[in-house]
Design a protein that fits this description.
Layout (H helix, E strand, L loop, with lengths): L3 E2 L5 H8 L4 E4 L14 H10 L3 E5 L7 H10 L9 E2 L1 H11 L5 E6 L1 H9 L3 E4 L21 E7 L6 H11 L5 E4 L18 H11 L4 E2 L5 H11 L7 E5 L2 H11 L2 E5 L5 H6 L7 E3 L2 H26 L1
Parallel strand pairs: 1-12, 2-3, 2-10, 3-4, 5-6, 5-7, 7-8, 8-9, 10-11, 11-12
This protein binds magnesium ion (MG).
GO cellular component, one term: cytoplasm
Family: Belongs to the HAD-like hydrolase superfamily.
Organism: Papilio xuthus
Length: 313
């Protein structure tokens, strides 16, 4: 089915649309803020709550600290956003806890993901941060470490050849867990140019180790289910997932069974329509652009209840 432009719906169509979901799960970067808050996003979530929907946030970005997230949510006028947020670092930590993991995690991750894992009591190993210019020096990175029981990849900007040697060496043991957080092969930095994301390194290791990672970031189904569990939601078909990235956000929606709304912050309608396999159910320019649209529904609701009250009198 071709994506439907929410902005072109009339009030009665919007009411039908609103009846199809109870929960809103939203991505953050590119939807609520870029460097600054995107106008109207906070108000959009307020409307959704007024319309009886629960609101939660799901991001692939484990790099931000709690304080940084809290500041961004506050600037966007969203209360308790951090408490309602799911990111890969927490998903990885909870997953390891759920399998009673008690060995060392080799972290090819951002520092914050390692902080989260350590805060759960896990022992982490990382590095080296730099390699040398001689292949012969790399033999040391081919040495196994029996204490390592998991290799985690999640947005490591300092990923390098030695780390990849180590990861592949550990993953040669089939009982070593292979876990990935953010999968982004590309990131929207500059329109019209190809911007590689750190997920590309996970793919190289996956290919060379001949292992598929357990995906605890978007678009992994397990991550979508983890976000549902945290939000206390049991039926994925009653969730509307909002995002700005086709592969990650629409992909997660498709994998988990959510309805999807793509905001066109980083894609043109042509990009969206040209995608061969992933199409959102709905699209809009931005969340702010939907505020006046849903205000109309709210006003119509108020009118109806006023009329009802007058009749009763
Ligand atoms: Mg995004």
């Amino acid at each position: 089915m071709e994506p439907i432009n929410l902005m072109s719906m009339n009030t009665s169509e919007l009411k039908v649309f609103l009846d199809t979901f109870d929960h809103v799960f939203s991505d953050c970067d590119g939807v609520i803020w870029t460097k600054k808050p995107i106008p109207g996003a906070g108000e959009f979530f307020e409307r959704m709550q007024q319309l009886g929907k629960t609101v939660h946030f799901v991001s692939n970005n484990s790099m931000r600290t709690k304080q940084n997230y809290e500041d961004l949510f506050e600037a966007a006028n969203i209360k308790q956003g951090f408490e309602k947020l799911t990111v890969p670092s927490t998903a990885i930590a909870e997953y390891l806890k759920s399998i009673n993991f008690n060995k060392t995690v080799y972290c090819v991750t951002c520092p914050e993901t390692m902080n989260v894992l350590q805060s759960y009591g896990f022992t982490c190993k990382y590095g080296p941060e730099v390699g040398t210019d001689l292949y012969t020096n790399y033999i040391q990175y081919l040495e196994d470490d029996e204490n390592v029981g998991a290799v985690a990849f999640d947005s490591d900007f300092n990923v390098n050849l030695p780390k990849m040697y180590q990861a592949i060496t550990y993953l040669a043991r089939p009982d070593v867990h292979f876990i990935s957080g953010a999968t982004d092969r590309y990131v929207p930095l500059k329109p019209g140019s190809l911007n590689l994301g750190t997920g590309i390194f996970t793919d190289i290791v996956s290919e060379e180790a001949n292992r598929e990672p357990t995906q605890l970031g978007k678009p992994g189904k397990l991550f979508g289910e983890f976000a549902m569990k945290r939000a206390g939601v049991t039926d994925p078909s009653r969730v509307l997932f909002i995002g700005d990235m086709i592969e990650q956000d629409v992909g997660l929606g498709r994998a988990t069974g959510f309805k999807t709304l793509l905001v066109l912050t980083n894609n043109t309608p042509e990009d969206m329509k040209a995608h061969q396999t992933l199409k959102p159910d709905y699209y809009a320019d931005s969340l702010g652009s939907l505020v006046p649209v849903f205000n109309k529904v709210n006003n119509a609701k108020e009118e109806t209840s006023k009329k009802k009250k007058t009749k009763i009198k």
